[in-house]
Amino acid sequence: MKIIKITTLIAAVLGLCSCEQLATIDIPNLSSSIVIESQITTKLEPWKVKISSTQSFNEHHEAETISSANVVIHNNLGDSVTLFYHESGYYMSETNRAAIPGSIYTLDVTYNGQVYSATELCRHQIPIDTLAYYQIESDNPFRKAGYYVFEIASESENTNDFYMWKVYRNDTFLDEFAYLTDDDVIMDQGFLNTWMKGEDIIEQMQMGRIPNAFPNTFQKGDHVRIEQFCINKSYYQFINEFTAQMNRGGTPFDAPAANPQTNLSGGALGYFSVVNVVTAETHIN
Amino acid sequence: MKTQKPKHFRTYKLGRVFRLLSTIVVTLTVQLSYAQSCIVSGTVQSKSSGEALPAAMIKNLKYQGCFANHEGKYQLTLQAGIHTLTASYFGMKDSSIQVEIKGDTVINWLLNSAATEITGVVVKADKQIANVHDRPSSVVALDIAKIKAIPVIFGEVDVLKTITLMPGIQSGGEGSSGLHVRGGAQDHNQILLDGAPIYNAAHLMGFFSVFNGDAVKDIEVYKGGIPAAYGGRLASLINVTSTDGSMTKFKGSGGIGTISSRVAISGPIIKNKASFMLAGRRSYADVFTPLAKPEIIKKSKLYFYDLNFKAFYQVNSKNKIYLSAYNGRDVLGLGQMFGLDWGNSTASLRWNHIFNEKLYCNTTAVVSNFNYGFGFEFDKNTAMKFKQTINDISLTHQGMWLANESNKLTYGTKFILHRFNPGTFHLNDDEMQLEHKTALEPIVFVEHANKINSRINLRFGLRAVAFANIGGTSFYYSRDEDGDPNLGEIQKEQFDKYSISNLYRSVEPRIAMSVMLDSTLSLKLNYNKTSQFIQQASNTSSPFPTDQWFSANNNVKPQYAHQVALGLFKDHKYGFESSVEIYYKSMMNLIDYRDGANLFVNEHLDAELLHGKGKSFGAEFYLSKTVGKLNGFLSSTISRSLKQIDGINSSKEYSTSYDVLHNSSLVLNYKPSDKWSFGAAFVLTGGKPITIPEAKYQFEGRWNNHYGERNSYRLSNYHRLDLSVTYKPQKQSKRINGEWNLSIYNVYNRANTYAMYFPQASESQAERLGVKKGETIAVNVVLFKMIPSLTWNYKF
User: Fold this and answer.
1) Same domain, B213 and B250
2) Does the beta-carbon distance from B754 to A187 stay under 8 Å?
3) Of A86, B29, B300, B450, which is the most buried if we count CB atoms within 10 A?
4) Where in the sequence is the domain holding B246, given as residue range(s)?
C-alpha cells in the first residue's frame, strides 16, 4: 500500500538522527512448536507439505525438520491423498495433482498423537488479458531506470478478491520484494493498475499516464513470466502480517509485534493455502 | 456464524436528567441565599500591559486569601474591619493596601513588573499556601516563565514536554509530544487552546508541540477531579491559554533557535480598551535544502509553522469580547512527487458579560479543524491524493454565580457538532469519497463549590452528555468463528440526513473535597466519571498524524472511565511543599485494531476493531522548593496501566505499551545574579513494555519471530540529564533586551533505547554490529544522544 511508502520515507528522515546498537536480552528456551507450510495449486504437480519445528531465538542453524508425521490432504468431493516423507522435511504426493476451483481442501497432519488441521477453498481466477511493459529512462525516487512490466486484467465488480504474484526473470524467481499482494478494496476494477481506470489502459498510456507495474526492474532481452494467484482473504492477511513482522525496523510506524494468524489448528505455526494460478509471459524487446 | 442484528436504541429520558439537575440547582439556591458575608472582589492586572494575571494571590496578614481566576478575577470573604491586603504575582512587585471593610467591596489591582526580569523559577513564599489551601488535587498548573526555565531539546520551549516532568504525566517517548496521563492513551487527553480543541498537537511527527512558547501564557492539566464544565476525554483536560495582548504599549518578544525562529508582538488597538497579540513561528530546515547536491533533497520540503492571534475588546464595564485564532501546519514533500501535510486551525470567540458583581457569564463559539493529506505524482497525468478531516463547531454558555465567598455555582450548556470526512481519494480525474459522518453532542452541567467551614471545601457537580449520529449509514457485520467480519454479508441501515441514530448518553458525577487537617496539612479527595465519544486508534507502535479519528456508532460504543484519587498536601519550612496522591481508574469499551487491520480508505473500519477494558492505578509524589536562588522540584510516580481486549493476547490482560512502573524527575534552577541563571533536569523512567520473540521459525525460506505474550518484557530504564545556562548581558540596547540560552540535552550522552526490534542481520548490520549476516539479533534503536543548542531570545 502507498501508506507504506509514506512511512518508509518518514522513517528514513528519522533514521538521519538515530543509531542502532546490539542488545542482549534474556529469552527463555521454551519447548519447540511444529511449523507446517503447504501450498497446493491448480497446476498439475506433486503436492508438497514441509514440516519443521521452531528453534530458540539465540540458535543460528537451519530449521530442524520433522520426518515422522502422517500427512493427508482431502477435499469435499471425497478425494483423499496421502503424502509421504521425501527429504528435508518435505512430504509429497506420489502423483501429480491439481486443485479444483470451487472445492474445499483440508490438510491433516498427525504428529506425536496431536492432529493439526487446516481447511481452505480453491477460489476462481481471472485471466491475464495482457502483459506489457514500459521504460523509465532515468532514476526517480520511486523507481530505478529500466523496464517495468504490468498486466491488464478485468477484475470482477462487487467482489472482495485477493491476489498474489510471483515474478520470474529468465525462469529465476525474483524474491527481493518478498510477497507481492493486492486486493480490490480501493479500485474494484483494474485492481493492479490503481493509477488508472480498468479500461482503455493503452489509450491512457498514450495520454502520458503510467500503469502501476510490478516493482522488479528488467533489461532488454529479459524473458518475464508472471504467476498470478487468486488467494483467500485469510491467506492474504497471513502474508501481510508475516511481511509486516519481517519488516519491523524499530521505527514508530512498525506494526505492533504479533504472530500472523494461521489457519492451522492445534497451535501449529505456518499456513496451508490453496490457490488458483494463471501464468503470462513476455519478452522485453 | 453469528449475525449481529440491527439494534434500535431506546429513547433516552432526558427529562430525568433535567429533573435531577433542577433539584440540585434549587437545593443550592436555598442554601446560598442563607449565607452571609463581606465580599471583597475585583480583578488583578499587569499595570504595564493591562493583561489579566491569573493565579495572582490576594491575602491579608492572617493568610486569609484566594487566587485570581483565568480572567484575573478574584473574590474572598473577610470579617468586617481593617485589613492589610496584598496582591502578589510571579514576576511582579507585591502591592499592598490598608482598607476598612464595612460591606461588599471591590478592589482592582494593577501590579508593576519586578525590577529585574525573572527567567528562573522564583515563586513568592506566600504562594505556598496554595498547595494545601486552594489548589485542587490532581491538577498541574505551570506558567510560561516556569516552563522557560527548564532545559529542553533543541532549545525549543515546549509546554507539553515540560508537563511530562510532573507526577502522573508520562511522555509518549523520546522526543515525543504525546502524553499519557495516569495510564490513559494519547487520545484520552482533551487539549484545548483558548477553549478550542486541538486534535493533533504535534509538529515533525511529535518532536515539537504546536504551542509556541512566546504565545502561551500558562497551561493547566487536570489529571482528575475535572470540573463539570469540561469533558469528552477519559484521562485529562489540558487547558492552554495564549498570551493576552498588552493594553498600554506595543511590545514584542522572540527568539532565533537551532530548529525554528519565532516572534510575537502585542499592543493596544485602543489604549486600555482593546488589544491584540500576534505570534508566529517557523522551522527552516528547508531553507538549506536547495544548497544540497542530490536533486531529491534539493526539491524536498520539511517545515512547520504556527500562527497565533488573540484580540480583546472591552465594550464597556460589563461586556468584554475575546477572539483567539490558531493556524499551524507541517509540510513534508519531495517536489511534486510526494507530499504529506497536516495541521490544525481553530478560532474561538468569547463574550464575557457581567450582570453584577456576583453573576457573570461567558458565551463562547468555537470552530476547530484538523486535516491531513498526502499524495503522489509520478508525472502530470498520473497522480493520487488522499485527504481526511475532522471539524468541530461548538457553542457554550457558562454562567457563574458568586453567591458569597463560601458558595459558587457554575452552570452551563454546550452543543458540539462533529463532522468527519473519513477519506477523499483522488486518482487522476476520478474521486472516491467515503461517506461523511456527523454527530451531535449536547451537554448540560452544573457545579457547586462550597466552603463548608474554614477547614472543608467541597466541589460537586454533574455533567450530562448525549451523543448521537446524524444521518448517514449504519453497517452491521456478521462474523465467523474467529471473529473476522464477513464482508460479503454486510447489512446496511440508511438514515435520513437529519435523523438521529445510535443515541448514547452519560451522566457524569464530579466531586472534589479538601479537608484542612492543620494549617499546613490538607487531605484532598476527588472522583470523576468521564466519557469519550470520539476516539483515535492506531495500528502502528506510535501515533501518527494519519491515525483516524472516528465517532461512536452502532459498532463502536463510547468509552467510559471512573477515577478516584486521594492526596495529602503539606507545606514545610523554608519554602518547601510536598504532596502524595494515589489514584485508581477503570476504563470500559476501550478499542484496538485487529492485527494486520486495513485502515486505508476502508469504509468498514469498524469491522477491524476489537473491544475491551482497562485499568490503571498508582501513587504520585511531589516535593518542591519555591523560594530562594536555588529552587525546583522532585516528582515521582509509581503506576500500572493494564488492558484486556478480546482477541488480543489470547484475550488475557496485558500491559499497555505505556505501562511504566516508575517515572521520576528532578528539576533545579539556580539564579545567582541577574546576569546568569542555570537550569538542570534529570529524568528517570522505568522501561516500557515490549513484546519479544520466544522463538523463531522458517516459512517458505524466510525466518520470522514467534512472539510471546504481548508487552511481557521491559526495556531498560530511561534516564538523562539536561542542563541549560542563560546569560543576560547587562549592557542592553535601548530598544531590545536580549539573552543567550545554551541548552544541552542528554549531557552524559546516554544511549536510551527508543525502540527494540529483532531482525535477521542485513549485510550492513552485520558489518556495523559485528555479527554474521542472517543471524537473528536484538537491536536497540537510539534516537537522541547529546544535543547542544543555542538560542537568542529577545524582547522589545
Assistant:
1) no
2) no
3) B300
4) 240-795
Class assignment of domain A34-123+233-276? mainly beta
Residue B498: is it exposed, middle or buried by C-beta count within 10 angstroms (0-12/13-18/19+)?
A: exposed
Q: Are strands B689-690 and B713-714 parallel, antiparallel or unpaired?
A: antiparallel
Residue B377 phi, psi dihedral angles, 5° rounding: -145, 105
> Cα separation of B416 and B390, whole Å?
13
Q: What is the pLDDT of residues B705-730, one digit of tens each?
A: 999 888 889 999 999 999 999 998 87
What residue ranges do the domains of chain A occupy? 34-123+233-276, 125-231+279-283
User: How many interchain CB pairs under 8 A, A with B?
Assistant: 232
Angle at B177 between CA B176 and CA B182, to 5 degrees: 100
Cα B401 to chain center, whole Å?
A: 28
- The per-residue pLDDT for range B513-522, each reduced to its tens digit, is 999 998 889 9
Q: Between B296, B698, B779, which is nearest A22 by CB?
A: B779
Higher pLDDT, B114 or A273: A273
CA distance B592 to B606: 10
The chain-wide mean pLDDT, for chain B, equals: 84
Query: Would you state the pLDDT for residue A264?
Result: 96
According to DSSP, the β-strands at B65-67 and B57-59 are: antiparallel
- B487–A141: do the CB atoms touch at under 8 Å? no
Cβ of A207 within 8 Å of Cβ of B700? The answer is no
Would you give the DSSP letter of residue B66?
E
Least confident range from A13-27, B255-269, B690-704: namely A13-27
Q: Given CB atoms, is B428 within the 8 Å cutoff of chain A?
A: yes
Cell 463562547, residue located: B364
Question: Who contacts B533 (Cβ-Cβ below 8 Å, separation ≥6)?
Answer: B232, B439, B441, B465, B467, B504, B551, B552, B558
SS (H, E, C) B597-662: CCCCCCCCHHHHEEEEEEEEEEEEEEEEECCCCEEEEEEEEEEEEEEEECCCHHHCCEECCCCCCE
* CB within 8 Å: A6 and B340: yes
What residues in A contact B600, CB-CB < 8 Å? Answer: 1-3, 186
How many domains is chain B built from?
3
Are A208 and B706 in contact (CB < 8 Å)? no
| Residue B74 sits in the same domain as residue B87 | yes
Residue A13: list chain B partners with CB under 8 A: 302, 332
The CA angle B385-B388-B392, to the nearest 5 degrees, is: 155
Residues shown for chain A:
285
CB contact under 8 A, B384 and A195: yes
pLDDT in tens, A126-162: 888 888 888 888 777 667 889 988 887 776 666 677 8
Neighbour-count burial for B406-423, b at 16+ CB within 10 Å, e otherwise: bbbbbbbebebbbbbbbb
Give contacts of A20 with chain B, Cβ < 8 Å: 765, 768-769, 779-782
Is B781 close to A18, i.e. CB distance below 8 A? yes
In DSSP terms, A218 is beta-bridged to A147
Same domain as B89, residue B202: no
The single-letter DSSP state of residue A198 is S
Amino acid at B331: V
Partnered with residue B617 across adjacent β-strands are B584, B640
What is the full DSSP assignment across B534-563? Answer: EEEE-SSSS--TTSEEEE--SSSPPEEEEE
Q: What is the pLDDT of residue B580?
A: 96
CATH number of the domain to which B26 belongs: 2.60.40.1120
Task: List chain B residues with CB under 8 Å of A140.
Answer: 337, 378
| Residues A20, B702: C-beta atoms closer than 8 Å | no
Q: Could you say which residues from 536 to 555 on chain B have a Cβ atom under 8 Å away from some Cβ of chain A?
A: 539-542, 544, 546
Record the pTM. 0.83
User: Which amino acid makes up residue B589?
Assistant: N
Confirm whether the ipTM is greater than 0.90: no
